[in-house]
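**Sequence, structure tokens**
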Amino acid sequence: MAPPATIDAAQESGAFVLRPKGSWIVATAAELDRRLRGIALPQGGTALVDLAEVERLDTAGAWLLLRTEHALAARGNQVELSNVRASFAPLLAQLRMRGVDAPVPMHLRNAPTAWLAAMGLSD
């Protein structure tokens, strides 16, 4: 069984810190998406996304992290992803090249699934 996936958010030493934990995989994506959308993102500061406690990461989880990074940056924050495991770096780099703003079909309800479908439509 996959470790539970969670995310903690806190203000620490003048920075907004997000700490994702556990398995950020397609099986946990819908609940993580709901939780991420419930976090009040700061504006115009420093934001750190600390991946030290992410045990598993697939495309859906990576997309959620990069979407959050993008949302923080769009609000004027300087964003840093830290403690990225070497095994996660290629996936994150590949998704960054594709972009998190790919158009998604409106009839798809699960955000990660919709984004993955849109990747195939854009080629």
In short: The mean pLDDT is 86. The first strand starts at residue 6 and ends at 12. Residues 6-122 form a domain with the Transcription Regulator spoIIAA fold (CATH 3.30.750.24).
